Amino acid sequence: MLVLGFMSGTSLDGVDAALIETDGRRVDAFAPACLSPFEDAERNLIQHATAEALKWNGYGAPPASLCAAEAAVHEAHLRAAREVVAAAGRLPDLVGFHGQTVLHRPERKLTVQIGDAQALSDALGVPVVAGMRLDDLAAGGQGAPLVPAYHAALAEKLSLELPVAFLNLGGVANLTFIGAERELIAFDTGPANGLIDQIVQARGAGRFDEGGRLAAAGVVDEDVLAQLLSHDHFRGTGPRSLDRYDFPLDWADAFSLENAVATLTAFTADSVALAARSLPQAPGTWVVCGGGCHNPVLMEALSERLGNCRKADDLGLRSDFVEAEAMAFLAARSAQGLPLTYPGTTGVPAPLTGGTLYHPALIGV
Ligand SMILES: Nc1ncnc2c1ncn2[C@@H]1O[C@H](COP(=O)(O)OP(=O)(O)OP(=O)(O)O)[C@@H](O)[C@H]1O
Ligand SMILES: CC(=O)N[C@H]1[C@@H]2OC[C@@H](O2)[C@@H](O)[C@@H]1O[C@H](C)C(=O)O
């Protein structure tokens, strides 16, 4: 099957769309992929809705701004779909749709991804699987991370020596450990680029720390770093997940941009190192994907702490599209009732399938 996966992550750069050939068990081939950036007006609507969703926090009526943001999310997905479908020269057989996370409160079984799966299915004329976090949360899981099943399929496709770890550096960082017996351990390790992006944008210095230049020019504040690492999240063990806005940034007002970014970059690397210490064995290789793998200062800091870190692209993967590909893979699994999540990945009591299948409305009926 040719399956299209969409991911619009917490960094709000845009919609990733990636096609893969898969039967939901193996990854047979990679097909065209693209990033369709949000237009400024779309990003503003989504940023506003995210801020309102944080204030709402799941109590009472959801903010009206979610509707306008949902329309923007839909438009951006259609643009991305048109681009990859044109590149592939055909429609996919199935779509995996994540939606835009605006709030994640797993302890209250609440996660909110905006987007209209039925409208997407109607517009594309293709069945769409969405809501892939919901059954997991309802069954007592964290609802995240979802990508471990796909990381495991990639490890198999590349015949990677086990144990191996995959590390995704998006707004939030998440890791998947694949043990010698193919057992999975996964969780969100802490922030990746989210806080760095936030301060760079607040100071009017662009959207992110391009090439890690700010971090390279700054000095790490060890006291702030120690304080950041004392957050409750790092006391936990086992499956756990984060909202992109779970960590404070108010302390940074007293710092130069360079020193704040250097400290946040060390925070990301140290929180991954803490996560690594909780693993049953040291992975022989860390396969690093997500936007943070393009930051050489962060990659260097990770290599110092973890050992063998390889950019996913160097292994023949597409570091910027692993999450979108994962949504495609999971949609193919969902359509067959195969598990999406496992006790070791989200804390769900038993392997569990999930997702809802939306069929396109018949034209003219
Ligand atoms: N050349 C680069 N130099 C430094 N940082 C970069 C570079 N390219 C991307 N990034 C970082 O990666 C981020 C985007 O990463 P990515 O697209 O993986 O996140 P996401 O998928 O939106 O988030 P999440 O995985 O948490 O949902 C950017 O916001 C930026 O911080
Ligand atoms: C609630 C939510 O959207 N979480 C994201 C976020 O971004 C990275 C990390 O935190 C991960 O847990 C998850 O995304 C990926 C796709 C996942 O579920 O595996």
From TrEMBL:
SUPFAM superfamilies: Actin-like ATPase domain (SSF53067). It catalyses: 1,6-anhydro-N-acetyl-beta-muramate + ATP + H2O = N-acetyl-D-muramate 6-phosphate + ADP + H(+). InterPro entries: Anhydro_N_Ac-Mur_kinase, ATPase_NBD. GO terms for molecular function: ATP binding; kinase activity; phosphotransferase activity, alcohol group as acceptor. It holds the Pfam family AnmK. Its EC number is 2.7.1.170. The keyword Kinase applies. It comes from the Bacteria. Catalyzes the specific phosphorylation of 1,6-anhydro-N-acetylmuramic acid (anhMurNAc) with the simultaneous cleavage of the 1,6-anhydro ring, generating MurNAc-6-P. Is required for the utilization of anhMurNAc either imported from the medium or derived from its own cell wall murein, and thus plays a role in cell wall recycling. Belongs to the anhydro-N-acetylmuramic acid kinase family. This is Anhydro-N-acetylmuramic acid kinase. It comes from Aurantiacibacter xanthus.
